[in-house]
Amino acid sequence: MSVLSADTDPRVEKIQIELLRKVSPERKFQMVAQMNYTVRVFMVAGLKQRNPDASPEAIRRMLADLLLGEELARKVFAYHAQ
Asked: Kind and range of the H or E element at 79?
């Protein structure tokens, strides 16, 4: 098996993989959802740090641009403005 994490001892990684194989699909989904939430929190924090004077609406738009791409974000925001 190839190493998945360069900073993790292969023996520890093997144990992690064995444990993850035992986790229910529902729990795996919860773990992924929590990671996605955490990434979004970090993204918003970074946007606020780089744009301290931006309004909450502007931050939402910047986040949408990052997540959806500028073209789709523009369409979504235009749709919701109707």
From this structure: helix 70-81
